[in-house]
Amino acid sequence: xxxxxxxxxxxxxxxxxxxxxxxxxxxxxxxxxxxxxxxxxxxxxxxxxxxxxxxxxxxxxxxxxxxxxxxxxxxxxxxxxxxxxxxxxxxxxxxxxxxxxxxxxxxxxxxxxxxxxxxxxxxxxxxxxxxxxxxxxxxxxxxxxxxxxxxxxxxxxxxxxxxxxxxxxxxxxxxxxxxxxxxxxxxxxxxxxxxxxxxxxxxxxxxxxxxxxxxxxxxxxxxxxxxxxxxxxxxxxxxxxxxxxxxxxxxxxxxxxxxxxxxxxxxxxxxxxxxxxxxxxxxxxxxxxxxxxxxxxxxxxxxxxxxxxxxxxxxxxxxxxxxxxxxxxxxxxxxxxxxxxxxxxxxxxxxxxxxxxxxxxxxxxxxxxxxxxxxxxxxxxxxxxxxxxxxxxxxxxxxxxxxxxxxxxxxxxxxxxxxxxxxxxxxxxxxxxxxxxxxxxxxxxxxxxxxxxxxxxxxxxxxxxxxxxxxxxxxxxxxxxxxxxxxxxxxxxxxxxxxxxxxxxxxxxxxxxxxxxxxxxxxxxxxxxxxxxxxxxxxxxxxxxxxxxxxxxxxxxxxxxxxxxxxxxxxxxxxxxxxxxxxxxxxxxxxxxxxxxxxxxxxxxxxxxxxxxxxxxxxxxxxxxxxxxxxxxxxxxxxxxxxxxxxxxxxxxxxxxxxxxxxxxxxxxxxxxxxxxxxxxxxxxxxxxxxxxxxxxxxxxxxxxxxxxxxxxxxxxxxxxxxxxxxxxxxxxxxxxxxxxxxxxxxxxxxxxxxxxxxxxxxxxxxxxxxxxxxxxxxxxxxxxxxxxxxxxxxxxxxxxxxxxxxxxxxxxxxx
Length: 816
Description:
By secondary structure, this protein is α/β, with parallel strands linked by helices. It has 7 domains: 104 residues, GIY-YIG endonuclease, CATH 3.40.1440; 60 residues; 76 residues; 186 residues, 3-Layer(aba) Sandwich (Rossmann fold), CATH 3.40.50.300; 157 residues, P-loop containing nucleotide triphosphate hydrolases (Rossmann fold, 3-Layer(aba) Sandwich), CATH 3.40.50.300; 58 residues, Rubrerythrin, domain 2, CATH 2.20.28; 92 residues, CATH 3.30.70.600. 35% of the residues lie in helices and 21% in strands.
């Protein structure tokens, strides 16, 4: 009898251990670590599992099921990746299954309940095999199928490979949960058919059209517009030539014109590899210092003030790695930023760039995954948000983390709650790659590590082209209110600066970190304020849709005309968001274009591109936005930045509030005066004497660092102490309360006074779940892994108590 063979499989579910399945001897000979297999788990549920190990040890406690089928010819996850995932699971105290689920694009994680849809753009049926055609045909009749239904159609169980092939051929796609369905706006453009490339064919065409007056006009108008050598929009041509869309369509049918759409999905980057820009002497010096630091240190903190030209220095470092045939990972905190940096790096590295982030469709992400896995030429540089650290790199040479201080690098929900900057350090170490952390306002931890000589440190404190840092002015709102010099939310000083900038044809950015029209709606008669039924917050008023909306759970309802409590119609709004600022500006500056950039206007894949593109093309004169604006964007015509309410950032219950406020204000200020002349920054505040505001006004990072470090040391916070935050959630308040008190007693028995809590967060109920927190502080000498083992033990005991079992238990390591 053959000796039995077994494989250990990770499943994309939050369970700590791997599961063992049995395989035949032939399968065991073929299967490799990192391949996917389809297995059944629980009541007939099919999952895509990942092979972790192949062995001959039969499980003792259960009988191993057989696998359904092998899904890959070769591994799609490398062993280095697996060890990185294991580190993430261990360090951030989550299961390997959760890391696996977060890492793999969901099209590679088919389950029995996965729903497939037909891709409307697919027409070439000749490339389909017989069974693939049966599914394609079924999708012509039905709008969607589950994998169970596909199995019924084909009359067989093993359908996952066929589905995989159809995804690869772009015949079908899988839908993820998208909170607001968004369709990118595709502009229709017109170009001349390629058969009319020479003058002779053009003359012939015009004489043929001489009887069709309108068509003749359309072609002549096209040439007028084409003189500018710009892409021509269909609707511009119709308007200019005074023709209807039917005339244009007739010309397309005659093969005179052809339509094409800009904003093509399935991203490819063209770009001629232009030579890199010459660096100025300060950039050159910084570059050579980074290269010298790399001889001794793996990680270098690159502290370059805003607009000092850090991207050009990165480009030189990337070029050096590409020449050695290495891959480069370029991490960015915000998807908005990728738009600008792509276009910059594209000029230098052309089609060697791939981009990976959540606004791309699943099929595009799968495509990038395979390119990186196969080390294709078009995936030598990966630009991405935090999830890009999970890609299957094979020979990484350099990781650049731009704006390394950004909180967007930290994942809060769902698990794994990792910090991409820290996880990237471990990834770099595994590949023996170098790492650059770049920022104008480094996080306290990174700067502290640099002062302790853990990292190399290089600074660049001259702006490119020797432009001076912007002039920062603090405006005292109390004083302005007293003198009645406020117009809406604008002081007279800010308004005169805006007018000046507009008169000189320059652009303005205004920053307000609240979206919507007004965060609080209140009845002036009885003081009632509409609350969200699912969360403990007041609803925000969005004027554009005339609705009240919860920013935590997306609950929405129409704006009432009368107070829900006393019935009077005296409803007033308090506080202000970006939408209100936009409307006030439209009234104050009716002849200028006002744009807004916040979560509401940038939903969907091309949301950022449209707004940033319009602002770069100077179609928008004043741009109002939330913290998205503070992230490294580069506009050369902005001469004024206004921060409308600095106090909201300072009065925040968080030990990093001051550091974050400093970073945000300095970053927003850095958008001003980047090209030729010194810019202005106006900060409106009720407390101009505040230490942080003074440090921002003098751009004094050192002073902020020393002062905050002292505070952190005194109150035992990072970088001196590590933090683990534990959150309990349940829909019954009493359950959470009893649970957190039990937990506090248990933890205090082990860690004594280093347990803080229990505390209730400022928003104490979200989506009908009550929330309570505890924080464990870990002193510098205490072992982190031993602490985690203790916490895990207490968690296991907690979950063994029957009444606590339904409570959601969330552990967040380094929760900041």
